[in-house]
Amino acid sequence: MDDLSKQSYWNKRFLIEDSYEWFGDCLRLYPILDLYLKSSPSFILLHLGCGSSSLAEEMYNRHYCHLILNVDYSFCILDKRRSIKKNECLIDWFALDIRAMPLRSEYFDTIIEKGTLDVFFIGHEHCLWNPSEELKEKIDLILTQISQCLRSDSGRFISISFQQPHFRRPFLAKQKYQWSIQVHSISDGNESMEYFVYVMTKGEQMNEEDRLLEEGKSTKWTWINKQESLRQITTYYVDEQDDQYLLNINIEDNE
């Protein structure tokens, strides 16, 4: 099984792939993105792990921002996207590992990612009911850098994920990130295609439930307080030929 967090996997894939949308048509995203970006467009937007998605062009055409910086781990896809870009000065692509982002602090109005964080949760070694310290540290490193790059006055991090809130929220709910958390659900009526839009707003306080979650005292997300007693073994089978592999992290809550 390929490690989807490795540059080599994506370079190989992008040699033969020019365009693909992991979450389907971007149209389903518009009602939620409109809430945050339509009336108050960002001056500069950072798109993490852009891959072969056309999300950047879609966002620019809908006037969500004035400038877009797309970054990805793969040089291969960046060269392809650069070769077909239409807005020479308004959209650009750069190589960047999101685990080490040498970017300016408090610079971006909006940072968005679509499925990029999801790949770090995939693999037989990961159990979302009881995540490893290595996984926690890796995601914390990424989120810390994202928080630092956001403007302190209402900068937003928008994370689009197949991962359900009871798995993703514990990673997001940390006061040191200095943001609030809102969650929206998107579905086409088919449960297997449900995904979530997490919107973190810098400079806003987390709600009481999220503060309790960070302290391990949550009353809503009760499973996080019972990790020591959990004996469920959760594995994820990833078919390298299956373009829907990200759906494998959408695990049902059995409680």
TrEMBL record:
All residue ranges annotated as the Methyltransferase type domain in the record: 46-118
Alphabetical list of Pfam families matching this protein: Methyltransf_11 (PF08241)
Highest taxon of source: Eukaryota
Listed GO MF terms: S-adenosylmethionine-dependent methyltransferase activity
Keyword Cell wall biogenesis/degradation carried by entry: no
InterPro entries: Lys/N-term_MeTrsfase_sf (IPR051419), Methyltransf_11 (IPR013216), SAM-dependent_MTases_sf (IPR029063)
UniProt keyword annotation of Transit peptide present: no
Keywords: Methyltransferase, Transferase
UniProt feature coiled coil, ranges: none
GO biological process terms held by the UniProt record: methylation
UniProt family annotation: Belongs to the methyltransferase superfamily.
Classification via PANTHER family: EEF1A LYSINE METHYLTRANSFERASE 4, SAM-DEPENDENT METHYLTRANSFERASE SUPERFAMILY PROTEIN
Protein name: Methyltransferase type 11 domain-containing protein
Species this protein is from: Rotaria sordida
Organism classification: Eukaryota, Metazoa, Spiralia, Gnathifera, Rotifera
